């Protein structure tokens, strides 16, 4: 386990989001990405909560933003170096963004995420 300061971890999440292909970033719709610095369920690195883009209909309006939460403590517990944390944050962000686009866990595993 490595301890990464909250500010540094948040910077890693921002960098992972900034590293998404520009065309994907432009179609992220009504989603907020947050960092949980202290909690989370053991082993849960990230969580997508919302209505995936593939399930939104023409009546989709007036709803709270979807939420992607990235769990610092769980990711740090899995890693032993800061470089590992950077890579795990990137993988977790991509995985949860995949859920926003309607891609399920099985398909994400096929893609290596």
Automatic annotation (TrEMBL):
One matching Pfam family: Zincin_1
**Which residue ranges run through the membrane?**
none
Q: Kindly give the InterPro entries that the UniProt entry links to this protein.
A: Zincin_1, Zincin_1_sf
Please give the CDD domains that the UniProt record associates with this protein. Answer: MMP_ACEL2062
Protein name, please? Metallopeptidase family protein
Q: Which organism is it from?
A: Nocardioides bizhenqiangii
Q: What is the lineage of its organism?
A: Bacteria, Bacillati, Actinomycetota, Actinomycetes, Propionibacteriales
């Amino acid at each position: 386990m490595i301890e990464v300061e909250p500010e540094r971890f948040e910077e890693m999440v921002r960098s992972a989001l900034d590293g998404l292909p520009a065309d994907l970033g432009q179609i992220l719709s009504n989603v907020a990405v947050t960092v949980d610095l202290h909690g989370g369920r053991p082993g849960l690195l990230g969580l997508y909560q919302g209505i995936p883009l593939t399930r939104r209909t023409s009546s989709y309006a007036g709803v709270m933003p979807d939420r992607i939460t990235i769990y610092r403590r769980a990711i740090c517990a899995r890693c032993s170096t800061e470089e590992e944390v950077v890579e795990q944050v990137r993988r977790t962000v991509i995985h949860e963004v995949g859920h926003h686009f309607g891609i399920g866990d099985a398909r994400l595993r096929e893609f290596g995420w």
